[in-house]
């Protein structure tokens, strides 16, 4: 049986998990690992025996016959490494966000097409049990009817201990969990974006090199629906993961992490009464993402996350940044 030859760049954090999921497909093997930190060599030898260790991605791309590489690096490196990889004939999985600039996301897609390779993004949150349940209610079964408003927020703000807390390396506050929340909203609204308004701010006296402390994005869709996304490190009351309002009722979900949770849905009946119901989360393991990649490469199955769909998230985030710089003015997408 043909085995996909895979590699991971950046194994100090979440990269090790990516290597494990590659291996768990039973259709991929981790042929090589790259990390600039020599201290990770021992960890790699233990976790992925037989994998060749590199400290230079360029050297690894040149020396190894790879089919696939996962990029688990600081966000600013996703675009240049992806472009270098596809030019070397290697398919790419990038951690989210796809890039820190929309033009870089487009360049990644163009380079992949020119090389007849693919670039996909690890939007694993499309497999979240709560997202699949919400999608079944809002998009598939249309229980809420026409959607008026979608809301999603989280208490989040990485500290200065790692690169995630710095604007240049990460892209900014909204380029981390904000990318997941925007992706939720785009998929649940299921409509084209008309305009985006953003507001980003740091606390008084904060280091300008650090990420913002607060961010909010307002998205207007062609359907007339409006989505609000918020991230804030200082919030002390957790916002709802979802609050979606439609012509027939409301869906609500709190930040719970168990696969067996339930959404709350309140529907207005024809009698005028309101019926409260619960919808069980739809369990789907994150491993399904890598299983899909293997099936795409070996069996020709459709890919779960297209580069184009991931680039839409970056377009929204970058438009929100431009809007914030103009006082929160609603702007069309690039």
Structure explained in plain terms:
- There is one protein chain.
- The chain is an alpha/beta fold.
- It has two domains: 4-122 and 286-305, NAD(P)-binding Rossmann-like Domain (Rossmann fold), CATH 3.40.50.720; 126-284, 2-Layer Sandwich (Dihydrodipicolinate Reductase, domain 2), CATH 3.30.360.10.
- The chain is 33% helix and 26% strand.
- It has helices at residues 15-24, 40-47, 57-63, 78-87, 102-115, 129-140, 167-170, 177-189, 287-299, 307-325, and strands at residues 4-9, 28-34, 52-54, 68-71, 91-95, 119-122, 147-155, 193-201, 214-221, 226-232, 242-246, 249-253, 262-268, 274-280.
- The strands form two sheets. Strands 8-9-10-7-11-12-13-14 form an eight-stranded mixed sheet.
- Strand 2, helix 2 and strand 3 form a beta-alpha-beta unit.
- Helix 4 (78-87) runs parallel beside helix 5.
- The termini are far apart.
- The mean pLDDT is 96.
Write a short abstract of this structure.
The chain is of the alpha/beta class and 334 residues long. Helix content is 33%, strand content 26%. It has two domains: 4-122 and 286-305, 3-Layer(aba) Sandwich (Rossmann fold), CATH 3.40.50.720; 126-284, 2-Layer Sandwich (Dihydrodipicolinate Reductase, domain 2), CATH 3.30.360.
Helix and strand topology:
Elements: E1 4-9, H1 15-24, E2 28-34, H2 40-47, E3 52-54, H3 57-63, E4 68-71, H4 78-87, E5 91-95, H5 102-115, E6 119-122, H6 129-140, E7 147-155, H7 167-170, H8 177-189, E8 193-201, E9 214-221, E10 226-232, E11 242-246, E12 249-253, E13 262-268, E14 274-280, H9 287-299, H10 307-325
Parallel strand pairs: 1-2, 1-4, 2-3, 4-5, 5-6, 7-10
Antiparallel strand pairs: 7-11, 8-9, 9-10, 11-12, 12-13, 13-14
Helix pairs in contact: 4-5, 5-10, 6-8, 8-10
């Amino acid at each position: 049986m043909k085995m996909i030859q895979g590699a991971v760049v950046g194994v100090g954090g979440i990269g090790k998990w990516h290597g494990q999921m590659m291996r768990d497909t039973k259709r991929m093997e981790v042929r090589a690992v790259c990390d600039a930190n020599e201290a990770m060599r021992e960890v790699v030898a233990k976790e992925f025996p037989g994998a060749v260790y590199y400290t230079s991605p360029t050297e690894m791309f040149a020396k190894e016959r790879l089919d696939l590489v996962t990029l688990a690096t600081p966000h600013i490196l996703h675009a240049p490494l992806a472009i270098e990889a596809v030019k070397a004939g290697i398919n790419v999985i990038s951690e989210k966000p796809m890039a820190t600039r929309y033009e870089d996301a487009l360049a990644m897609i163009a380079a992949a097409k020119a090389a007849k390779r693919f670039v996909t993004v690890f939007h694993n949150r499309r497999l979240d049990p709560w997202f699949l349940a919400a999608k079944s209610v809002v998009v598939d079964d249309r229980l809420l009817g026409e959607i008026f408003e979608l809301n999603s927020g989280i208490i989040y703000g990485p500290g200065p201990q790692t690169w995630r807390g710095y604007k240049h390396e990460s892209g900014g506050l909204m380029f981390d969990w904000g990318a997941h929340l925007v992706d939720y909203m785009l998929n649940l609204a299921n409509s084209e974006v008309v305009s985006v308004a953003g507001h980003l701010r740091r606390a008084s006296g904060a280091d300008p090199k650090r990420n913002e402390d607060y961010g909010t994005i307002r998205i207007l869709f062609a359907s007339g629906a409006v989505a609000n996304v918020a991230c804030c490190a200082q919030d002390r009351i957790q916002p709802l993961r979802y609050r979606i309002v439609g012509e027939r009722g409301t869906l609500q979900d709190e930040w719970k992490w168990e696969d067996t949770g339930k959404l709350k849905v309140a529907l207005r009946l024809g009698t005028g009464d309101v019926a409260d119901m619960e919808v069980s989360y739809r369990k789907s393991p994150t491993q399904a993402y890598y299983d899909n990649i293997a099936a795409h490469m070996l069996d020709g199955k459709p890919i779960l996350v297209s580069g184009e769909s991931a680039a839409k998230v970056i377009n929204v985030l970058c438009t929100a940044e431009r809007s914030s710089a103009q006082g929160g003015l609603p702007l069309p997408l690039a």
